């Protein structure tokens, strides 16, 4: 159904990270794949990864919401910088009545540092035993617990929890884990000592959105022509945040074509909310290479090395970092493609590199 008649209502697009927009293109393939694996008990741990603004939080939230509507599941989200074992226990105690009753009757949480002052209490040895005891009770109730961690980073709490998680699943206890985070953050957890299990866990990458879906959404929601919607979809390069940004400003300005004003706001928002942060995390050498890469939307590695007068071994480390940051695509052997929309314009406006190879 066309939404043209609703066009002057509330803007259905949002540029607030973590907030689920009214208009969104769902990641049904990832959501359904993880839900099917959970239902079949094929896997118990999953990783969702990608660059900023690709929809990791929205996808994680979609999975949480689907499982919260299932009586067999108990879903608890925890912070990456917390004592996760303790936080999981505290959440289960606070949110699930039959668990509260079981704990009150069988477990002295204060012995594990869990009491009224949850934020400051120091966890004592044995909190892992308390969690194990609770999970054994859940087996009797035929319930399963999903722990979710968004913006996962390599924190002591995450490392401790993953090590404990390995022990819990070896005992066939009903606990499952989904973490979502940036490429580099997930990789740092994977490479931590003693977390080989996490390295093997199923990983899902937030790939670009389908251009056809974006085009059809812009056409139906904004009332732009098919040709204009096609150009708009191409401009976003399938980047989920760019899809929201462009839709928002086209809606705000009631534009039927991509005017200079729309593009200016589009560029400013991508720069302030995403690109400046990504750029600041690059080394001077990475930034220096990018000044050459943006000269063409797609070039061969040979062309780049000719322009920069660098050798293959001098390019290999920046190549890996730029790929990890989601800035370039090097899946086609020998070719380099820019993944981020209008990143060329951003780089050209931020040329202050003093790196001297």
Q: What's the CATH class of the largest domain, please? A: Alpha Beta
Distance between the termini: 57 Å
Q: What is the helix tally?
A: 16
Q: What CATH architecture of the largest domain would you give?
A: 3-Layer(aba) Sandwich
User: How much of the residues is beta strand, in percent?
Assistant: 5-15%
**What is the gyration radius calculated from CA atoms?**
23 Å
The description of the largest β-sheet is: 5 strands, parallel
Overview of the structural elements:
It is built from 16 helices and eight strands. The chain is α/β, with parallel strands linked by helices. The strands form two sheets. It has a five-stranded parallel sheet, with helices on both faces. A three-stranded antiparallel sheet has the order 6-8-7.
Could you provide a short overview of the structure?
It contains 16 helices and 8 strands.
Record the SSE blueprint.
Elements: H1 28-40, E1 45-50, H2 56-68, E2 73-78, H3 84-95, H4 97-106, H5 127-141, E3 144-149, H6 156-170, E4 175-182, H7 183-190, H8 196-200, E5 202-205, H9 211-222, H10 226-236, H11 240-252, H12 260-280, H13 284-293, E6 298-300, H14 301-308, H15 312-324, E7 328-329, E8 335-338, H16 343-349
Parallel strand pairs: 1-4, 1-5, 2-3, 3-4
Antiparallel strand pairs: 6-8, 7-8
Helix pairs in contact: 1-2, 3-4, 3-5, 9-10, 11-12
Question: Which tags fit this structure?
Answer:
single chain; 357 residues; alpha/beta; Rossmann fold; Arc Repressor Mutant, subunit A; 3 domains; five-stranded parallel sheet; three-stranded antiparallel sheet; 16 helices; 8 strands; 52% helix; disordered N terminus
């Amino acid at each position: 159904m066309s939404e043209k008649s609703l066009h002057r209502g509330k803007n259905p697009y949002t540029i607030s990270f973590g907030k689920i927009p009214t208009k969104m293109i769902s990641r049904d393939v990832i959501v359904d794949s993880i839900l099917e694996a959970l239902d079949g008990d094929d896997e118990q741990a999953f990783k969702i990864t990608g660059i900023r603004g690709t929809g990791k939080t929205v996808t994680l939230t979609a999975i949480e919401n689907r499982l919260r509507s299932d009586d067999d599941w108990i879903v608890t989200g925890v912070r990456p910088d917390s004592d996760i074992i303790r936080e999981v226990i505290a959440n289960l105690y606070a949110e699930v009545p039959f668990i509260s009753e079981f704990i009150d009757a069988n477990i002295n949480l204060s012995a594990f540092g869990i009491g009224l002052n949850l934020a400051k209490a120091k966890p004592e040895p044995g909190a892992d035993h308390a969690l194990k005891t609770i999970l054994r009770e859940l087996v009797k109730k035929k319930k399963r617990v999903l722990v979710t961690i968004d913006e996962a980073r390599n924190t002591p709490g995450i490392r401790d929890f993953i090590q404990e998680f390995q022990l819990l699943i070896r005992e066939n206890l009903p606990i499952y884990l989904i973490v979502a985070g940036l490429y580099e953050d997930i990789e740092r957890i994977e490479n931590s000592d003693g977390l080989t299990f996490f390295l093997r866990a199923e990983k899902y990458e937030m790939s670009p959105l389908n251009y056809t879906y974006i085009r059809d959404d812009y056409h139906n929601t904004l009332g732009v022509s098919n040709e204009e919607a096609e150009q708009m979809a191409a401009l976003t390069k399938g980047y989920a945040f760019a899809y929201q940004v462009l839709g928002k400003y086209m809606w705000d300005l009631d534009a039927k074509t991509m005017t200079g004003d729309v593009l200016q706001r589009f560029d400013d928002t991508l720069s302030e909310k995403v690109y400046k942060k990504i750029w600041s995390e690059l080394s001077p050498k990475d930034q220096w290479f990018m000044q050459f890469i943006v000269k063409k939307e797609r070039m061969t590695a040979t062309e780049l090395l000719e322009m920069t007068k660098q050798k293959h071994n001098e390019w290999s480390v920046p190549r890996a970092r730029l790929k990890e940051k989601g800035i370039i695509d090097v899946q086609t052997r020998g070719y380099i493609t820019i993944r981020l929309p209008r990143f060329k314009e951003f780089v050209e406006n931020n040329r202050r590199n003093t790196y001297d190879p």
